[in-house]
Amino acid sequence: MDNKNELIEYFRKMLLIRKFESKILSLFDENKIFGTTHVYIGEEAVAVGACSAITKDDYITSTHRGHGHFIAKGGDVKLVMAELFGKETGYSKGRGGTQHMSDMTIGHLGSNGITAGGIPIATGAGLAIKYKGFNRVVLCFFGDGACNEGYFHESLNFASVMKLPVVFICENNLYAMSTPVDYAFPTKDISCRGSSYNIDCNIVDGNDILKVKEAVECAVIKAKKGEGPTFIECKTYRHFGHSRNDPKIYRSKEEEKLWLENDPIIRFKDYLIKNKKISKKRLESIEKEVKIEIENAIKYADDCPFPDPKDVEKYLFYES
């Protein structure tokens, strides 16, 4: 059972992701960040719950909507911010941006701009773990849209055949860009696709951080025993559009209202208060701490240098 300090840390990390992503949206309006981004607001319980079930030595792969995964796995918000600002001190030295960051020191194998692109990477990492005899596991995050890609089917089949230590985590937020799941899938639940590859499946409330953590913990134990992969479908909802320029005209106001009332951070805060795990004073202090951490990250990113134009070909690989 998680102790009080651990529960409070889960809340702090979810709030940090929420406030970070909210600030990112406003920084576009201030012309501090350019291009586009896919914010993780509304799905924080999945990343924090899942990453709380593994160790620093375990791995994750991420998606185009990856800031939350990065922070949940232990990423430094200053370096994430610097990357979004296009600065040399960012995780990809200002060259990868919002969709292409990694940090091997914390077991983050990379976010990915290609739908389902992280799934074969996670599977390959799982194969390496098995061959090297490491007591590790890979959490593979992906969205509902990825489940209709060829990478998904090939990877799950291979992972099942080889009994690889991979936990496939589908963040089903009901839409692949603007395509609803009930249009794209002939089944009510996506998780049944894992069953077709003889993979154990689980469906959880993706807005309940403790349910997510519990499901991932069970899958991790199974994987580290050499019993193969698990498919976990987390039913959740993104509060904003697919990307920052998405007006969400394909969603009804009634649907949005229903899911906003099911906000994972509000739910977990209410749980902590109800069970006397946190005081109002501590909540207020966490809010202030998170605000300061994000302000410091913005200042850090602002003060850091852009890459030198003469280094435009640096870090590129050419086939001779």
Describe the protein.
The chain is globular. The strands form two sheets. It has a five-stranded parallel beta sheet with strand order 1-2-3-7-6, sandwiched between helices. It has a two-stranded antiparallel sheet with strand order 4-5. The longest helix has 26 residues. With 320 residues, it is of the alpha/beta class. It has one domain: Rossmann fold (3-Layer(aba) Sandwich), CATH 3.40.50.970. 45% of the residues lie in helices and 10% in strands. The chain contains twelve helices and seven strands. It starts with a helix and ends in a 17-residue tail after the last helix.
Short précis:
45% of the residues lie in helices and 10% in strands. The chain is an alpha/beta fold.
Topology:
Layout (H helix, E strand, L loop, with lengths): L3 H26 L14 H8 L7 E3 L5 H6 L4 H8 L33 H15 L5 E6 L6 H13 L3 E7 L2 E2 L2 E2 H4 L7 H4 L4 E6 L3 H16 L5 E6 L17 H8 L3 H11 L5 H24 L17
Parallel strand pairs: 1-2, 2-3, 3-7, 6-7
Antiparallel strand pairs: 4-5
Helix pairs in contact: 1-2, 1-11, 1-12, 2-9, 4-12, 5-6
